Amino acid sequence: MFGLDASESQRVADVLSKSCSASALSFEYLNSGMATIGPVANSFGLSLEDVTGLLGVLANAGFDASSAATAGRNIILNLADANGKLA
């Protein structure tokens, strides 16, 4: 979903592993959350690191995966909307 080349697989593995060890994220959480937030984040130029960081912060705050992904997606959409509440 981030348009990464197979040559970046080690980077992806490192990012996902680090995000799980440094926050309340799990691989199951990432799997669930990325499906919702990933495509929107990528369309606005956010990186894998940006999205895992956002999900990690929301996980640490007690959000479940579905709520974190939905909240994250909505945050990105509102930030991108010049007339939105976060503009």
Biggest β-sheet: count, sense, barrel? none
Total number of β-strand segments?
A: 0
* Total domain count: 1
Percentage of residues assigned to helices? 55-70%
The span between the termini is 26 Å
The assembly state of the depicted protein chains is single chain
From the spread of the alpha carbons, the general shape counts as: globular
Low-confidence runs (pLDDT<50, min 5 residues)? none
Question: Which structural class do the helices and strands define?
Answer: mainly alpha
Overall mean pLDDT: 91
Radius of gyration: 13 Å
Which percent range describes the beta-strand content? under 5%
Element-level helix/strand string: HHHH
**Individual helix count:** 4
Topology:
Layout: H1 9-21, H2 27-43, H3 48-60, H4 65-80
Helix pairs in contact: 1-3, 2-3, 2-4, 3-4
Structure, briefly:
The chain is an all-alpha fold. 68% of the residues lie in helices and 0% in strands.
